[in-house]
Design goal:
The complex is a heterodimer. Chain A is of the alpha+beta class. In chain A, the strands form three sheets. In chain A, strands 2-1-5-4-3 form a five-stranded antiparallel beta sheet, with helices on both faces. The longest helix of chain A is centred in the middle third of the chain and has 73 residues. A five-stranded mixed beta sheet of chain B has the order 1-2-3-4-5, sandwiched between helices. Chain B has one domain: STAS domain (Transcription Regulator spoIIAA), CATH 3.30.750.24. The longest helix of chain B is centred in the middle third of the chain and has 16 residues. The chains are: A alpha+beta, B alpha/beta.
Chain lengths: 441, 129
């Protein structure tokens, strides 16, 4: 309806009641149109409050809107000393007043009787500021807000038509409030998805880097294997050299096999199918085996290895195969990042009621800022380090995953330039709870 | 709302700043769509410490309920602050809306600008319209 036509209906020849009806209906129309374009809850609440005030000719009003999942109301205040009301009003959605409004039918007088001292104080505050009535804004049983109103400026009572209009407006508003909340949720979900998307992109980048690292890692041992195998075909080679070359091939073959195991383990992590089978076992024994298998690498860098294993270490529960991989990865790293002629120390002890193993080196160390991400998949502190020292960047991710899946943990302390210490902790075997042994010397 | 007729757009501007008074000149259709701008102008003036408003309504063609709500609460708030609001040059169609809602006595309306300003500057007359 064009406004001129409708304003004609407001002409003096029409009775006041009819003019009120027309104005009320126009308000409803204006509100419905407006609600379709308002997309956030705060704007909607503010608009609804002003509309109700205009419709009922009220100069003081408050809208209490539940503030998300928290037990408090967001306040829209009009015609009152806003700061004073905001700082003093403590009404909460969980309070008796709000619970009463949840079941109130239509407009009710604001009264303090039967309320707690705190809530009575709130009602007194409202009444002393001229607030007299409260109307719930509900959708089904859910309270979407409470409209608090002062006296009408002309002092008239609410007519049945005005009452119906108010109910209609609040019914529509209740539904629109739901919609705006859904829209708000949708927006935050969208933001979360964008963040997720960024993480996926980062993961994708790291995977690409990983593939390139794996390429490097594979190339070195394969070149050795092929080279030494070709040499073996020459009949001139004496038996001792032949044995030495065969040893190199074996060693590099094991390195390849280890790398492939890592890639397979990693795929289990990403597919979330990594399964561990913990059983009671001897950690010291496992450490000796791993250290022995890496003797060649240790000798190649002229490192000294110090095993300081507590003889009183209680049995603990772990998956021997997976844990061997953990220890091997930690020791591999310690060797890899040690300077030539450096020292690698492995010690076991009982720590905080768990069986702990420390692997320390005196190598390059890890910058403080990288300590948090060092256990992430594909993460290497520095791409150039990767190139110099080798490694696909999955070793520590595997360590963390394996340790956590068998109720253990891994932590790291490091000083750049001085070296790193990785500590793994395993649960003690429950049936063998024995007094804590002093740390190994 | 897809209101294509631009003549219905409201223009809320600070027309003149008398010492201690802000004149708010509104124009067009004061419906939900126009409301944020009107509220913004009022907010800006209040932030500068203004408590006396002269609201020119002669170019306003329609006021919705929310617009009436803005005026009623502004009058109340300015009273609280020791200031006041006077409406100037209300068009007959708007006057009828005020009549139907029975708010003519609550809103102080004047035809003469000088009289309106005089009224705004004397707090006693503001508190008893």
């Amino acid at each position: 309806m064009a406004e001129t036509e409708y304003l004609d209906f407001l002409g003096e020849e029409n009775p006041t009641a009819l003019r009120k009806h027309i104005l009320g209906l126009e308000t409803l129309l204006d509100l419905t149109r407006s609600l379709m374009v308002i997309q956030d809850r705060r704007t909607l609440d503010g608009f609804l409050l002003l509309t109700a005030m205009g419709l009922l000719s009220v100069s003081r009003a408050i809208l209490l809107a539940p503030d998300g999942s928290e037990d408090r109301f967001h306040l829209h205040v009009r015609g009152l000393r806003e700061k004073e009301i905001r700082s003093a009003l403590g009404l909460r959605p969980s309070g008796v007043f709000a619970r009463r409004m949840r079941v109130a039918s239509g407009i009710v007088e604001v009264r303090a009787d039967g309320l707690s001292k705190r809530e009575s104080g709130d009602i007194e505050l409202l009444r002393s500021n001229g607030i007299r009535y409260a109307v719930p804004i509900r959708v089904k049983d859910r309270l979407n807000g409470i409209l608090l109103l002062g006296e009408r400026v002309h002092g008239e009572k609410l007519s049945p038509f005005e009452n119906r209009m108010l109910r209609s407006i609040l019914d529509i508003a209740g539904v629109v409030m739901d919609n705006t909340e859904l829209y708000d949720d949708l927006r935050s979900a969208n933001r979360a998805m964008e963040a997720q998307n960024e993480r996926l992109k980062e993961l994708d980048r790291l995977k690409t880097e990983f593939l390139s690292n794996v390429g490097h890692e594979l190339r070195t041992p394969i070149t050795s294997v092929i080279g030494f195998a070709e040499c073996l075909r020459y009949p001139e080679i004496d038996e001792a050299t032949r044995m030495e070359f065969a040893g190199h091939i074996l060693e590099q073959g094991q390195r390849l096999s280890n790398l492939i195991d890592q890639v397979l383990d990693l795929s289990e992590i990403t597919e979330q199918t990594l399964r561990v089978e913990p059983r009671e076992a001897d950690l010291n024994e496992l450490v000796r085996e791993v250290a022995d298998s890496l003797r060649r690498e240790i000798e190649a860098k002229n490192l000294s290895i110090e095993l300081d294993l507590s003889p009183d270490l209680p049995p603990s529960r772990f998956d021997p195969k997976r844990t061997k991989r953990v220890v091997r990865n930690l020791l591999d790293n310690a060797i890899k990042f040690s300077h030539a002629k450096g020292r690698v120390r492995i010690s076991s002890e009982v720590m905080d009621g768990t069986v702990a193993l420390r692997v320390s080196d005196e190598g390059v160390g890890i910058p403080q800022g990288s300590l948090d991400s060092i256990f992430d998949s594909f993460r290497q502190v520095d791409g150039s380090e990767t190139r110099v020292h080798g490694g696909a960047g999955v070793g520590l991710a595997l360590v963390k995953e394996i340790m956590e899946s068998q109720n253990g943990s891994v932590s790291v302390e490091s000083t750049p330039g001085k070296g790193s210490t990785f500590t793994i902790q395993l649960p003690r075997s429950e049936e063998n709870q024995i007094p804590e042994t002093p740390p190994a010397r | 709302m897809n209101q294509t007729n631009t003549s219905f757009e409201v223009r809320a501007r600070i027309a003149r700043e008398e010492p201690g008074i802000v004149e708010l000149a509104l124009e067009g259709r004061l419906d939900a769509e126009a409301l944020p701008e009107v509220l913004l102008r009022i907010e800006e003036a209040r932030e500068k410490g203004c408590v006396r408003f002269l609201v020119a309504l002669d170019q306003v063609t329609f006021i919705g309920s929310a617009g009436i709500g803005v005026f009623l609460s502004l009058v109340e708030e300015m009273k609280n602050e020791g200031g006041g609001v006077v409406f100037l040059g209300v068009a007959p169609s708007i006057q009828r809306i005020f009549e139907v809602l029975n708010v003519l006595e609550f809103l102080m309306i004047r035809e003469d600008r000088e009289e309106a300003i005089r009224l705004l500057l004397s707090p006693e007359s503001i508190s008893t319209p």
